[in-house]
Amino acid sequence: MFLGVDTGGTFTDFVHFGADGLRFHKVLSTPADPSRAIEQGVAELKLKASDLHLVHGSTVATNAVLERKGARTLFVTNKGFEDLLTIGRQTRGELYDLCPELPEVWLKRSDAVGVDGRIDAQGGMLHALDSASVDALTRRLASGDYESVAICLLFSFLNPAHEQALAAAIPANLFVSSSHQVLAEYREYERGTTTFLNAYVGPLVQRYLQRLQHTLIPRHLFVMHSAGGVMQAERAGEQAVRLLLSGPAGGLVAATAVGRQLGETKLLSFDMGGTSTDVALICGEPAMTTEGEVAGLPVSLPMLDIHTIGAGGGSLAWLDEAGLPQVGPASAGADPGPVCYGRGGRQVTVTDANLLLGRIPAAARMAGSMPLDRDAAERAFEQYGRSFGLGAIRAAEAVIAIAEEHMAGALRVVSVQRGHDPADFALICFGGAGGLHACALAEKLAMRRVIVPVASGAFSALGMLAGRQQSEFSRSRRMAVDDTETAVQLQSLLTELEHEAALQMPGLALSFERRVDMRYAGQGFHLMIPLADGPDIDLPALAEQFCAAHDKAYGHRLARAVEIMTVRLTAFVAGPELIWPPLPAAGTQAPCTMVDIHGAGEVCCYRREDLVAGSHIDGPALVIEDIATLWLPERWCLQLSPHGHLLLERME
Fold this sequence. Notes:
Blueprint lengths: L1 E6 L3 E8 L2 E8 L5 H11 L8 E5 L2 H7 L6 E6 L5 H4 L24 E4 L2 E2 L5 E3 L3 H13 L4 E4 L9 H9 L5 E4 H4 L5 H29 L3 E5 L5 E3 H6 L7 H17 L3 E7 L4 E7 L1 E2 L1 E2 L2 E3 L2 E3 L3 E2 L2 E3 L5 E5 L5 E7 L18 H7 L8 E2 L3 E2 L2 H13 L5 H23 L11 E5 L7 H7 L4 E4 L6 H6 L4 E12 L5 H19 L6 E10 L6 E4 L8 H16 L7 E12 L19 E5 L3 E7 L8 E3 L2 E5 L2 E5 L3 E5 L5 E5 L2
Parallel strand pairs: 1-4, 4-11, 5-6, 5-9, 9-10, 13-25, 25-26, 32-34
Antiparallel strand pairs: 1-2, 2-3, 7-8, 11-12, 13-14, 14-15, 14-20, 16-19, 17-18, 21-22, 23-24, 26-37, 27-30, 28-29, 28-30, 31-32, 33-36, 34-35, 36-37
Helix pairs in contact: 2-7, 10-11, 10-12, 11-12, 12-13
């Protein structure tokens, strides 16, 4: 039996695939200990944990970074580079701001130690590691209350000998994160921040996964990582920084599968949960990046290119210093949650606004069981609206309008700002709250088609079941494409990475995807270019491939030599393909009840499970299910695909 679990800020979603087919479930998250919500869900689904192949998307690493609640970490680097993480790149978000906001200081100067010893730029031993420095380091650790150590030395990606010697000297009870194991690539600052974050969240992730393993004792426990694959829980604890986009990655895996089934290769994904909204662009496959950022710190690991904003169903409405209404990024989360949950929340949210406007029926049960208090939401909105001269209904409309503008802006970031016209794409919408806003967002971006897939309210958990077991490996080496030795060096590096993959993923029949980071000589940035399969590497063709990609991305080519900076290998074992079986033959049109929605009057409300293949609905209408709600406004129509996906189209 397979169970996908996505722990979100407000709800924990479950997708179970067993002898009876797919089952979906939601429970409120338990932020203090996310494993308690998982135990509750497994019990409510009446599953035997020891039979489960459990694939988990965890927010433990993300929350530790966002809330600044990671482990106390000692940063170890070369003498003279102790301020590496503080100085950074000295970039400014606003170039001409005369009073720029200072970057956050993640590391106290007293928590950084420099050691004597140096590897040179060719990987040779310039100065041996000083034993006195190593002794001083161990004394510092003995006298401090550190939980973890991050080691990042110059040019360790060429020669890790000094990092290995330091790691061997550190007491076994401490979590050790060495940069040559986390990110064997050039750029000291990015390698340093990634290694530091791995040490910062590593002990928390390890403890959480060990507790989950010992409590549930599943047959297998895998964790989804930011590149859209899954890894064994033991390795996830060691490489915790790879889990920072663990949950949202599952949604993109499933969205890509739906696109293949429907023949849609150009998709904008919109995942709105209780706490945040995640958006991404899919052209055949989701885009990858090695230039991610979390809480202002770069994370240079391969990850799906997902843009996240603090806008969800639980996003709090508030007034700024000028008395103007704002929404998010702070969220009511699962505890206390929106006012209408009746769990002590006092500040109105997007969910409260949707309930007050009737888009969530007052009789609905959140997650299938939790009643909602519309009267409490109305009283809260009366108080909120009074502060800036609006009644409860108008204030709720303002909250919806502001939240939708934030979300439309996020979709523009991944489309318009990257040279794509949203009108050429279909919007694939998922997350428990996504269907309430999908049509409005599509209209803002001049999009005509929206897809609301099967299990949209637990879609990321569904995608986790299809995640392939996958690991990423890389090595930085500067190689000129026109050098006759480059093909041999490149093949040697790929062989080395394949051997490393075999050691880390023993007993598996591995397949490989190969890429290289390339640039024009002298540039400070690169483009990731896929390598063709096969033993022979055609360097002139590879150079032309890069030049064409550069022309497409930046509109020009340069008369400069081309060089390879980093070699990348993805090792994987293909996972099960998501296939939605056809629905039974069409029967009678689904029945509906009438509900009152502000601005639309009485409209039909359908249960999604009552819809049959070929069902056609003209808006305005509501389509509800236990794990999600869809608001179909006027001028939109809906048709149920043969496999159960809701296909929405804007009418003229």
